[in-house]
Specification:
151 residues; alpha+beta; 2 domains; 3-stranded antiparallel β-sheet; 3-stranded mixed β-sheet; elongated
Amino acid sequence: MLASRAVRENEAIRRRRECLRCGRRFTTYEEVEDRRVMVVKADGRREPFEREKILRGLRLACMKRPVSTETLERIVEDIEREITDSGEREIAAAMIGERVVETLRGIDPVAYVRFASVYRNFQDITQFGEIVDRLRLETRDKRRRARRLTT
């Protein structure tokens, strides 16, 4: 490579190169690829991914709960990184919602139930009861395993 410099207000890099075989010179331009991921809603609508929407939902679910702002930011960063790393240009909103629900499940059971009830559109009290019963069983099983490990 002979020379490299930023062009177009740092939106691209201009590189002067020389062919090692024939010695001819050429120029290439490298640009940052702006790949906005689109979120596909249940009704088929598409809208750009917005990390702020996830953060807003997490804040509501964790209101008055012992979950730090740093933890919420980390959750959003992890989800955003997974989406970006997937290389997909579109992702179903349901995939994002399930990822949030499962993360909250391991962090705070009350926030988990709050988020799940809105995300999964609970229609009556029995759905709350089912999710709480599952959490109780999981908690009981974890305690039993912990006791076995300590004895």
